[in-house]
Amino acid sequence: MKRVAFAALLGLAACSRQPAEAPASPTPAPAVAASPTPVATTVSDDQVVPRPGEQKTFRDWTVACDNVARCAMASLGTDADFPAVTLQVSRAAGADGVVEVALDMPQGDGDAPATLRIDGRTFVVAGKGQRDASAEAIARALANAMTIEALDKGGKRLGTISAAGAAAALRYIDAQQGRAGTVTALVARGDKPAATVPAARAAPRVRAVAFAGKAATLSADLLASLRKTAECDPSFTGSGPRTHGLADGATLVLLPCSAGAYNEIDALFIVRDGKAEPAKVDAPAGFEETGADSQTPVHSVINGEVEGGVLNSYAKGRGLGDCGVMQSFVWDGAQLRLVEQRSMGECRGNPDYLPVWRARVVRG
Hints:
This protein is mainly beta. It has three helices and 24 strands.
């Protein structure tokens, strides 16, 4: 199972062990802000500044909402137990926001969980990619749960999930989506009609130039110049630079510059007409607000990889892959733009990352 995780060398500040007891005065899900530096284009682009949502932890559950107000909560292992089974509950925004439930077994490939038993009541859980008719009933049962067990299709218990904090996480989702006091709330139910629930926000559009065309050849002198500009670790001897041609005639360069624990730091450059300059990026990669590596003046990604016209950053928290940050960027002709971010700030055995930012890619 390929999952994410971020090096202690870079500071895993997000892996807090301080649980919150209740979602007091939750901050509304992040709004879309206008960018101060628009890019001229004939293709629709909303020119937003990415503002990924916050992740909050309530005892043995962690929860986050993204910029379109979709929220998800994930179970965590306790101090005394590394979970055999994990559970994630998500809900879309809006009056008709659908609830989805997913079970996973991060430690093995045995029989997949088929049912949940919550305080003695059994609920069938659909497979991945299938609509789960019982998902909302499961979420409502979690609000008052004392015991949660995952069973295989034969009724064998595969593991238990802590109920501590589940109600608080559900209450937080109700508040973030404007459901509190309405008939649609999972915990904070009231008499207000569903029509009073705010609609989901549209994902911002981001123009993307294709990763296509012939990549530029990098001379030894140019590479030496790039390493000097990025202030790369002189003792680091990682893999060679990776180049990717862009449809507008530029070349994206991922230059391995330093490393720590499970992470290779790749400095980003754009080469055009034989000249190179540090790539512009609209959001930092990794946990730190300054970016992947605070020791370099050049924007970087972690374990960078280009796939399907997207530059991915994979910041690992530890080798188990149960915490970190996953990000995806596209090139708009002037800078790299964040179009997706998933995070797991708790290193407690759950590799199912929570979406905190999303955009709609418009190819041009």
